[in-house]
Design a protein that fits this description.
The protein has 280 residues and is an alpha+beta fold. The protein has five helices and 15 strands. The strands form three sheets. A five-stranded mixed barrel has the order 1-2-3-5-4. It has a five-stranded antiparallel beta sheet with strand order 8-7-6-9-10, with no helix packed on it. Strands 11-12-13-15-14 form a five-stranded mixed β-barrel. A hairpin with a 3-residue loop joins strand 6 and strand 7. The longest helix is centred in the N-terminal third of the chain and has 23 residues. The N and C termini lie far apart (88 Å).
């Protein structure tokens, strides 16, 4: 066989090229593939998603650094949707959507805009959703009393009381960044691009089947689910908590098992008032 008749396939390259490393060829191919993805997004004004892997200064301005495979992109602070550096730091490690504004092939970098991507996504979302729809919300951040989530370019705020039935002592123990919550659309403001949702509204109301089980004068075992200055919350079953007075000579803490006596039930307000008769 003559050299000119030889076809350079990966298999025979491994045999005929001394020191051949197929992984290096794959890296080159991946690099070209990454640039093709960036070019396509720029040409078609489409949206990419990638994690924020760092924060660097570009022309003395802080920028979020995103990675599309082997290619680094810079999103200036004013195009990230963050108001300050502290908020930008809180976004690091998360995957964000962005549009490619321009690129420098020689420097192997590009610049992007998250705000442009969010505006585009929001306009599509508002056309697709209606009140009473059940959709997915991806959690972006969690505080003890509030969840901030994205439903497609639109940030929604879900307060503690709209996450689930029952007492929640600390939302950070119930919900984590990146969680996907099923939520129901309650209100839509097209002009303000504002949407109100509730995760609890998608769930079965446990009070409808349980309120008749707890009658005044009877005693039941429960678990302390929260302690506040005005009383003690005791979980009786999933989604059903009662409020009891503090004990006079003894303190209880979360997780303690107690016996409570039912003092009053209010089916309309979905409330049960109890008194702790024994700490188990």
């Amino acid at each position: 066989m003559k050299w000119r008749d030889f076809k350079m396939t990966e298999n025979n390259m491994q045999v005929l090229i001394e020191g051949f490393d197929p992984s290096k060829v794959q890296e080159v191919n991946n690099f070209d593939k990454d640039w093709k993805e960036v070019y396509s997004a720029y040409q078609n004004n489409s949206i990419l998603q990638a994690p924020i892997i760092g924060i660097e200064k570009l022309l003395d301005k802080p920028c979020a650094v995103v990675g599309v495979g082997n290619i680094r992109g810079f999103i200036p602070l004013e195009f990230t949707g963050a108001d300050n550096l502290r908020q930008l730091r809180a976004m690091t490690g998360q995957s964000v959507a962005f549009k490619v504004l321009n690129y420098d092939r020689e420097a192997e970098v590009f610049t992007g805009s998250r705000t442009a991507a969010l505006d585009h996504m929001a306009s599509i979302t508002l056309k697709k959703i209606d009140v009473d729809d059940e959709i997915i919300a991806v959690v972006r951040s969690v505080s003890p009393s509030l969840v901030r989530a994205d439903i497609g370019g639109i940030e929604v705020k879900i307060p503690l009381e709209e996450i689930k039935y029952g007492w929640i002592d600390d939302l950070t123990e119930e919900v984590k960044q990146g969680d996907h919550l099923k939520v129901k659309v309650l209100e839509i403001d097209q002009d303000e691009k504002k949407v109100i949702v509730s995760a609890k509204a998608t769930q079965e109301n446990p009070w409808l089947r349980s309120i008749g089980r707890y009658s005044s004068g009877n005693e039941y075992v429960g678990t302390v689910s929260g302690v506040r200055e005005y009383g003690v919350f005791v979980n009786l079953e999933a989604g059903v908590d009662s409020l009891a007075r503090h004990l006079k000579f003894q303190n209880v803490k979360r997780g303690d098992r107690v016996l409570v006596r039912v003092l009053e039930t209010d089916a309309k307000k979905e409330q049960i008032r109890t008194r702790i008769t024994r700490v188990l």
